[in-house]
Each structure stands twice: as C-alpha cells, then as structure tokens.
Write a structure and sequence with these properties.
The complex is a heterodimer. Chain A has eleven helices and no strands. In chain A, α3 packs parallel to α7 and α9 packs parallel to α10. Chain A is elongated, with a radius of gyration of 23 Å. Chain B is mainly alpha-helical. Helix content of chain B is 77%, strand content 1%. Chain B has a two-stranded antiparallel ribbon with strand order 1-2. The two termini of chain B are 24 Å apart. The chains are: A mainly alpha, B mainly alpha. The interface between A and B is large, with 43 and 51 residues.
Chain lengths: 311, 338
C-alpha cells in the first residue's frame, strides 16, 4: 500500500477487471506481502501467540467458569488461602478463586483497552487527516489543541475526568481514549501532509476531485498502514492506563478487571499478609499482554513503516 | 546606518521562536484554567451542597455558602472571579480537610519534590548509561539483556512493581524479614532535623525511590538507545574515525552529544509520566506528597482539592516544557543562532 501507484500489475490478472477490482487485488497482494515479512520477526510471532491465547481465554471463559463464581456471596473458599488443587491460584479476600477472577478480568481489561483504542485512533486520525489535508488555520487550531493534550499530564487529567464522569466501563474507556489520541494525530498529520503534496493528488484535484474523494480514496489508504501499527501500540498503553485508573478506584465497581483486582488486593492488605498469588496473577497477565502488544506493534511498524526498514 | 538600526530592532529567529513558545505555554495554562472552571460547573449537584455533604446544615447557611461561591452571578462574572482567585493563590476550601486548598497543597510539595527529584536524577543517569552502552555495542549480550529488561519494566504497571517490592523488602517473606519501613515519611516521634531523623527518612525513602527509578530507567534507556542508533549511521562519525580517533572518543565527543539533544527534550516532556508515577507510588507507600494527596482527594471525592492538584501538576509540566525549549536552544547551536 505504501508502494508507489505506478507499480506494474502482475500478468496473471485478467485484463477485463474493473478499476475497483484491480485496487482490491493490489491491496490483497500488499497485505500478503506484509504478512510474509511480518512472519519473519520472531518477536512479532511470539507476541501474536500470547495475544491469541489471552483473547481466546477472554472470549471463551464463560463456557468453563460460570459468572456466579465471581459472586462474593457464593464464594466457597477460605479467604486468602494459598494455591491448592481446588484453587490453582489461591483465593481472594472473600474466598473467591483468583483464577476465575483473573480469567474474567481479562474480558474487562481487554475490552476497555480495545474500546479506548478505537476512540483514541478515530479522534487521532480525524484530527490528523483534517490538519494535514486542509492546512492553514484548521491545521494551526487543531495542532494547538493537540499540543495542549500532549503537554497536560495524562494521569491527573484522566483522574479529574473520571471523577467527574463517574466510574463505569464506558466512561473509563472514554477517558483513556480522549486523553491518548494526540500521538496518533501527529503521526497521521505528518503522513497526510506528505501524501497531500504528491503530484497525483494535484492531478486528482485538477480532474475535479473534492476533499471527500481525495481523503477517502488517496490520503486515508496511504495512512492506514501507519495508523494500524500505531493502533496496536496504543492498545498496550490503554490497558496499562485502565489498570492504573482501576487501581486508584476509578474502575467500574460492578466488574472485575486486572486493575480492580490489584486495587482490592492492595486495599485488603494482600502485601502485608503475604498473599502473593493474589498480586502476582493479575500483574503477570498485564505484563504479558502489554509486552505482547508492544512486540506486535514494533514488528508491524518495522514492516509497514519503510523508514524503519533495515534497522 | 538606517539598515543597521532596523536590523537591531528585528528579533532573531531564536527570539521569535522563544516568544512563540512562551505564548504557547501561556495559552496552555489559560486552557487549563478554562477547563478547570467548566469542569467544576458540570459536576452533579452544586458546590455548596457538596461542601455540606453528609451534614445537617440549615438552608440559610447553604444559601450563604452559595453566595460566597458567587453561584448566583452570570457565568462570565464567575469566571473572572475564579481566575482572579487562582492568580492570588485562593484555590477554595478542601471538603476533606476543611482548610484552604493552597495550604494543604503547600504542606505536601516537599516530600514529592524529594522523591521525584532523586528518582529522576538516578534514573536519568543510569538509564542514559545503559542506553549508550547498549546502542554502542548493539546486539551484544549487554544490549539484548538490557533491552529485554527495559521493555519488561516498561510493560509492568509501576505500582505493581511497588507493591511487590513492598511485600518482599518492606513486609518481608518467609525466612526473609522486612528490611525497610512499609510506608510514610518517617517513624513516629522522630525529630526530622536530627541525624537519626535523616537516616530514618532515607530508610523510608529507599523503596519508593527504588521503584520509581526502576520504572523510569526503562523509558530513558530506550529513548537514549534509539536516538544514539539514529546517529550511528551518520557520515560525521566515519569522518571522526578516519581522522584516527579512538572508538571511545568518537562515542564521547561526537555521537553522544548529538544523541543527547532529542533525549533532553524527551526527558522534560516525560515529566507528565513522572507525575503519574508519583500518584500511584506515593499511594502504595503512603508517602505524604502531592500524589497521595490526589489519591485522597479522588477517593473522597474532594473536588476543590482535586482541581488544585491538577492545576499545579499541569502548570509544573507546562513550565518544564518551556525550560526544555530554553535548554534545547542553549545546547543546539542551530537553534541558538536561528
């Protein structure tokens, strides 16, 4: 996709294809090429493997562990008992299985991470493309706002917003999304500027293309690979942010996430009574998932960003 | 003559850049004020009710409070009063402490400055050293181990690391007694000014400082490594080697000074990240600074206090950014001469 548009089509394609179909076929080939290159990165493949395991666990956990296991009133174990055959990862302060909490927590942590990322990437891309494409005062105004969000310390801003909005899953995702888009906006703007100055954009404009056509047909397709690599890295940051906010007590009180597990472990004194299993289980999961997203993101960046090739 | 005099009146590119930066910082601060003002207005309920929450207060007294907040006046009037109050250091009354917010904040500044200052200095020095060594011997065992460790540290929530360190070295695990106090600034009944007092504070400072240093090292090492790697491909290093300079000199005199430029800016820009660490780590170790204060404010929730802390953190970070620009201009002759 990032290759010049003048690339010759392989002879295998039948000549009677419509322009749309040619574009589609070319994109399929580009994707296949990117995947072939991606597969060569061991870090990327390990990260992808870890993510597949965690996403599968999050999706299928209701089939194996009923939601009733999370109910405090139906807890069967002794509070803070160490790992045993019955509770492989021990129990929490009210006798619930830490394994069940961790697996169910994966759902909320990943869901908030993905939701926040979608919000962040949509805002960042719209702002970046608008600033890069329209230029002039739109650009200066949008970049002024972007700089403001960049300079304001993330956590205090998120805390203030989350306190005012109230704790719920959607609000946490919104708060993280609205505070984490400036990086994307800057990357997208730079790419949009580079694409807008290319001669074929001028040609399209001379042929009568409007802004919408230029953005949707030329600028967006050329920025998508960059946005994609950036998105994966943002998920890692979003999951860490969710953990931090939930740890501070700003998470959804009705749902278990890895961050809220650490919050209740800490506030119920798991550290002082040495209940390491309650702290280690969610922490290691966060560590693995964030590390996996970072590895996948960096591997993707190396494939999709030509400037980083050969590094 | 005329040409020379007009030239002296025209500000240099560097000065214009600085002026633009200062205006930008002032605008950012103004945005923070506006944001803070309106956020306070969209809160559920009204401030007078919030202040008297959970207490039986006669309606007349609530009315007096409402008037003292200026809630009956038009919004523009309220905004002007608000800005005036903030500029004169009046940040309102804390719900939780029932004292002026500025007083409460002033008491908590120094522990945070001590903790953040020390861990930032330590992590910068160690992180830069690791980054430089890793990039210079790229692909070596040291590089691979330090890169892996940095990425791992970067991926863990810093408060989780803090709780684990607290559990092992503070509380102690089986067969291994706790070595350090588990929280607070000092033990009760200790005279802070005495030698024992200083040792006591240092012992309390050790674990939170260690946690933050470890958490920040990762970032600095990664930034330094990648910015030095950017420089390593440059032609001037080949020239330096062709002159016959030893490897260590090429690194010290040529590569590192140039790689430090982007790193310096990033260290200052990173202050927002440093502040986040302070909030969670001070909470874990009950270190009585601004971070713990924010936590107490959000758990109450104490809105005036929360606003005050947010204002202070934002102003500090904006100021640090201006400083970073000034420093950058001093370090980089291209920017200095414009």
């Amino acid at each position: 996709m990032t290759r010049p548009a003048t690339e010759t089509l392989p002879p295998s394609l039948p000549p009677q294809l419509s322009p749309r179909a040619i574009v589609r076929a070319r994109r399929r080939q580009a994707a296949a090429r990117a995947w072939r290159e991606y597969r060569r990165s061991p870090e990327g493949m390990i990260g992808l493997g870890i993510l597949v395991v965690f996403v599968a666990a999050a999706v299928f956990v209701p089939l194996f562990i009923p939601a009733s296991e999370l109910d405090v009133t139906k807890a069967t174990g002794t509070p803070f008992s160490p790992p045993s055959a019955e509770f492989p990862l021990g129990t929490d302060e009210s006798g619930r299985s830490v394994l069940a909490l961790t697996l169910w927590g994966a759902r909320v942590s990943l869901l908030v991470g993905f939701l926040a990322t979608v919000i962040s990437v949509v805002i960042g891309s719209v702002v970046g493309i608008a600033a890069g494409h329209f230029g002039r005062w739109t650009d200066s105004l949008l970049m002024r706002v972007t700089d403001w969000f960049l300079v304001i310390p993330f956590l205090p801003l998120a805390i203030v917003l989350a306190t005012v909005l109230g704790p719920s899953l959607a609000n946490i995702a919104f708060v993280i999304g609205i505070t984490s888009w400036p990086g994307t906006a800057r990357i997208v703007r730079a790419q949009a500027l580079a694409v807008t100055s290319r001669p074929y954009i001028e040609r399209a404009r001379a042929l009568g293309a409007g802004d919408w056509h230029l953005i949707s047909r030329h600028i967006l397709p050329n920025t998508v690979p960059l946005i994609f690599a950036n998105t994966v890295l943002i998920v890692a940051v979003a999951i860490l942010s969710e953990t931090t906010l939930a740890f501070l007590g700003l998470g959804d009180p009705l749902r278990v996430s890895w961050g809220s597990m650490l919050d209740s472990a800490f506030t119920h004194g798991a550290a002082s009574i040495g209940a390491w299993w309650y702290l280690v289980a969610p922490g290691v999961c966060i560590l693995l998932v964030v590390l996996a997203f970072t590895m996948v993101g960096q591997a993707l960046e190396a494939v999709l960003n030509p400037r980083l090739r050969g590094r | 003559m005329a040409a020379i005099s007009t030239r002296t009146f025209r500000p240099s590119a560097g000065q214009r850049r600085l002026a633009a930066k200062l205006v930008g910082a002032a605008l950012s601060l103004a945005f923070v004020l506006v944001f803070n003002f309106f956020l306070f207005r969209v809160l559920p309920g009204d401030p007078a009710k919030n202040l008297t929450r959970n207490r039986l207060v006669p309606a007349e007294q609530v009315q007096v409070l409402r008037e003292s907040f200026g809630l009956g006046k038009p919004l523009s009037q309220q905004f002007i009063t608000y800005v005036g109050d903030v500029l004169t250091g009046d940040l309102g009354i804390s719900y939780k402490f029932r004292r002026p917010v500025s007083e409460v904040i002033a008491e908590r500044i120094w522990p945070t400055v001590l903790l953040l200052g020390l861990s930032t200095i330590l992590s910068t020095v160690i992180g830069l050293w690791i980054g430089i060594r890793g990039a210079w011997r790229r692909g070596s065992v040291f590089d691979r181990v330090s890169l892996g460790a940095s990425l791992t540290l970067y991926a863990m929530p810093e408060f989780w690391l803090g709780i684990l360190l607290l559990m092992v070295f503070g509380v102690g695990v089986e067969g291994f007694p706790g070595l350090f106090p588990t929280g607070g600034l000092s033990s009760p009944n200790t005279e802070l000014a005495s030698p024992e007092g200083i040792v006591d504070v240092a012992r309390h400072l050790f674990l939170p400082c260690l946690t933050l240093t470890l958490a920040y090292i990762a970032e600095y090492a990664l930034v330094m490594r990648s910015s030095l790697l950017d420089e390593l491909g440059e032609d001037y290093l080949t020239t330096a080697r062709a002159k016959g300079l030893r490897d260590a000199l090429v690194l010290r005199r040529h590569a590192v000074p140039n790689a430090l430029l982007p790193t310096t800016t990033l260290i200052f820009l990173n202050l927002g990240f440093v502040v986040s660490g302070a909030i969670t780590i001070e909470t874990v170790y009950s270190w009585p600074g601004l971070g713990l204060l924010s936590y107490e404010a959000l758990r109450t929730p104490d809105y005036p206090l929360l606003q005050g802390v947010f204002l202070l953190f934002s102003a500090a970070v904006i100021l640090a950014n201006v400083l970073a620009d000034l420093l950058y201009a001093r370090l980089d002759p291209r920017v200095r001469t414009g």
